[in-house]
Each structure stands twice: as C-alpha cells, then as structure tokens.
C-alpha cells in the first residue's frame, strides 16, 4: 500500500509512503478506525480517498497525539493484498 495523509483544514501533508519511497504493509486491526472502515472492499491496483473526522482518527483535541482533534484526508493506493 502507498498513502499520503493531509490535514483537512490546513492542507498540510503530515505523512507519505511515496515520500519515503517504500510501500507499507500492516494488519488492518492495528489502524485508526477510519482506515478499518474505509479500506475493506478495495482491490489491488485501486485508489481510495478517505476523509476521516477526529473521532475516527486520533480522538478529540488534547488526546495525546499530534493529530488529535483534526480531520484527516488520506489517499491510498492498494498495491497488493497479502
């Protein structure tokens, strides 16, 4: 999978596997709820945009993560299903 994450309000990119030049691989259960809800049904070679509100991402402001309280946008390319 390749992905890029952007803060909804500022449009600032906060993470990108493309920027690191390598895909990522992970178990779906270990991801934020917005990804757990948004990725199922994707097929290899597909692209999806997820717009995720704070309660499905890193929780309300002050929850301890630098993205807490923020709506997030992810562009996800599913390279392969393992």
UniProtKB/TrEMBL annotation:
Kindly report, in one word, the top-level EC class recorded for this enzyme.
isomerase
| Gene3D superfamilies referenced in this protein's UniProt entry, alphabetically | 3.10.50.40
Q: Which InterPro entries match?
A: FKBP2/11, PPIase_dom_sf, PPIase_FKBP_dom
Q: Which reaction does it catalyse?
A: [protein]-peptidylproline (omega=180) = [protein]-peptidylproline (omega=0)
State the Pfam families in the record: FKBP_C
Q: Which UniProt keywords apply?
A: Isomerase, Rotamase
Q: Which residues form the PPIase FKBP-type domain?
A: 1-82
Whether Cell cycle counts among this entry's keywords is: no
* An annotated Gene Ontology molecular function: peptidyl-prolyl cis-trans isomerase activity
The catalytic activity of this protein is classed by the Enzyme Commission as: 5.2.1.8
> Entry's SUPFAM superfamilies?
FKBP-like (SSF54534)
Q: Which family does it belong to?
A: Belongs to the FKBP-type PPIase family.
Q: Which PANTHER family match?
A: PEPTIDYLPROLYL ISOMERASE
- Write down what this protein is called: Peptidyl-prolyl cis-trans isomerase
Q: Which organism is it from?
A: Microbacterium esteraromaticum
């Amino acid at each position: 999978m390749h992905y890029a994450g952007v803060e909804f309000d500022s449009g600032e990119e906060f993470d990108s596997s493309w920027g690191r030049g390598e895909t990522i691989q992970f178990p779906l259960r270990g991801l934020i709820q917005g990804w757990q809800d948004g990725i199922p049904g994707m097929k290899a070679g597909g692209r999806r945009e997820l717009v995720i509100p704070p309660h499905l991402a890193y929780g309300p402001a002050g929850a301890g993560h630098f993205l807490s309280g923020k709506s997030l946008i992810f562009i996800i390319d599913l390279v392969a299903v393992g």
